[in-house]
Amino acid sequence: MDTVIATLKAEIEKYAVRGYNSVSRLIEDSANKFFAVITTVIEPNKRYSFLDLYARIVGEKIVIEHDANSKPLYEALMQAGISREQIILAYAGEPVPDTA
Q1: Distance of CA 72 to the CA centre of its chain
Q2: Cα separation of 60 and 9, whole Å?
Q3: Is the pTM of this model over 0.85?
Q4: What is the pLDDT of residues 70-96, one digit of tens each?
Q5: Where are the domains of the chain?
Q6: What are the tens digits of pLDDT across the range 39-63?
Q7: How far apart are CA 12 and CA 35, in angstroms?
Q8: Contact between residue 30 and residue 44 where contact means Cβ atoms under 8 Å apart
Q9: Cβ contacts of 33 within 8 Å, gap of 6 or more
Q10: Is the domain defined by 2-92 classed in CATH 3.90.1150.10?
């Protein structure tokens, strides 16, 4: 399970970058096994932030609650060796275990 958590963290960190007029930051709670990326857009006379990505570990699964990226996190995870069976796309209506 440590490998799954390390892979999730490594892949989600790649979404926490600085853009032309924005900055995205990784927020993690290792004790509760959740990771999020918050993006702040900076425009002249205007700033706003939004949740860009939110994933957590439930049992042996990675549950992706929200993903607003053009390259979905689940694709990055699969390319990094996580099987699709280990990933739950909660934002797409896939059922999340009751223990969640």
Answers
A1: 9
A2: 15
A3: yes
A4: 999 999 999 999 999 999 999 999 999
A5: 2-92
A6: 999 999 999 999 999 999 999 899 9
A7: 8
A8: no
A9: 5, 56, 57
A10: no
